[in-house]
Specification:
51% of the residues lie in helices and 15% in strands. By secondary structure, the protein is an alpha+beta fold. It folds into two domains: 113 residues, GMP Synthetase, Chain A, domain 3 (2-Layer Sandwich), CATH 3.30.300; 34 residues, no CATH class. The chain has a three-stranded antiparallel beta sheet with strand order 1-3-2. Strand 2 and strand 3 form a beta hairpin. The longest helix has 25 residues. It starts with 7 loop residues before the first strand and ends with a helix.
């Protein structure tokens, strides 16, 4: 990760202590492997979903989308992130600001737009939001909940 880069990050945790309702049965390795598998499948889903949603010019933002499944102690977590400096401005848009970027010039030319006109438009209006991260996180959390419910039902049934 480049020095000073912004990391756009969300984490979903599955604490072992939160599974006490299963009466101690959840402490078995089989159940936790199922939980880790659900986290991994959801991470892959989120990576693919965000890649379909994100606007692409060079592909750098799409390539920056990643996930980690982390196990610490008895807890598991899924972290989905982008370390691209463009992630937040693309997701939320930007306020009007001065820009004289080679990438903006290349993008404008590829779209058949004058680079000067693009610079002026960004200076006057900023950029529009193109949500890709938050919709993916919401969909991923829903998918993870469904996968965990299935894992719990299978485990409880035996």
């Amino acid at each position: 990760m480049a020095r000073g880069s912004f990391v756009f990050w969300t984490t979903v945790k599955m604490p072992k202590a939160g599974m006490r309702r299963l009466g101690g049965m959840a402490h078995g390795g089989i159940f936790w492997r199922a939980v880790e598998n659900a986290f991994t499948q959801t991470g892959r889903y989120m990576q693919a979903d965000a890649a379909m949603r994100v606007p692409t010019f060079t592909g750098a933002l799409k390539k920056s989308l990643n996930y980690l499944v982390i196990k610490r102690g008895g807890d598991s977590s899924l972290s989905f992130y982008s370390d691209s400096p463009y992630a937040a401005p693309v997701e939320y848009g930007s306020a009007p600001h001065e820009v004289m970027s080679e990438r903006v010039r290349m993008w404008a030319e590829a779209k058949g737009i004058s680079a000067a006109a693009m610079y002026n438009a960004i200076a006057l209006r900023g950029t529009r939001p193109h949500p890709f991260f938050n919709p993916t996180v919401a969909a991923g959390q829903d998918a993870l909940i469904r996968k965990l419910e299935i894992a719990i039902k299978r485990f409880v049934r035996g």
